[in-house]
Amino acid sequence: MNTSKTKNKYQIAIVPGDGIGKEVMEATLYVLEAFDIDFDYVYGEAGDECLQKNGEALPEETLQIIRDADACLFGAAGETAADVIVKIRQEMKMFANLRPVKAYPNTNSLRDDIDFMIVRENTEGLYIAGEESLTDEGAVARRIITREAEERIIDYAFKYAEENSKSKVTGVHKANVLKKSDGLFREIFYDVAGRYPEIEAEDYYVDATAMYLITQPETFEVIVTTNLFGDILSDEGAGLVGGLGLIPSANIGENGALFEPVHGSAPDIAGQNKANPIAMMLSAIMMLRYLGENEAADRFDAAILKVLNDANILTGDLGGSATTMELASEVKNNL
Prior knowledge:
By secondary structure, the chain is an alpha/beta fold. The protein has 11 helices and 12 strands.
């Protein structure tokens, strides 16, 4: 996607957040400096530390910075993640959450031919703020599934497949038990699939999908599903390819986009310069492609691939002993 601003000049909202979010953000921006692209970074606060400092986890000022930007890079949020990321998604109507699962060399990947995209609905399901309540007996959560939102995300998945030379889309649901809500999802899935006759459409129950991701992950190309199922399956996908340190994500809406690693703030290693910055870097690559800077994205991706292939400078989660910034320097040197 190209923005309406001057070519090669973009305003980017930078929200490092908590814990290792700050460290992986610093490492990623260090590499981005090498590209001949004019980025105007505008920094915003959000997360646990922001709550302690300002009395709110997501100030209106930060939201406005994100609204005004061409894209946002987000690091990580701790206990306030629901008050930060979920709210940003809803406020900005970022309906599509993209989570690529791809095998890289010299990682603990289950297979070397894993390469699929999870397209997750981002605005409804069980994650809508205010849809939980306490009762005398315990608690109740209300799950929202609308025809408009599910048709939009399913169509997005098929368009993604079409534009990225993918031949199959898999719809994931639990329609055998959730007959009305997930039954509607499955009905819409095949209605939309009819508009894309050149793309194979299949559907699985979510529990079967969880098994197939282990037994036959190479058969998936694009998975589209509802909010909670997509959240869980994408973490399973991370386990297939070596852990959360290698999984980026994008949140795409009609009026903005936010890119973030799937991992959390990891307070146990925060401040120690141990964190793997690759998921944050891969998120920045997704941002570059969103902005239409495909040549820079290809160079960045190739540099990461070379570092992983060489396996000389790797962080602890990948079996090495390098620091966050040492790995970043190695990536930058390989550009």
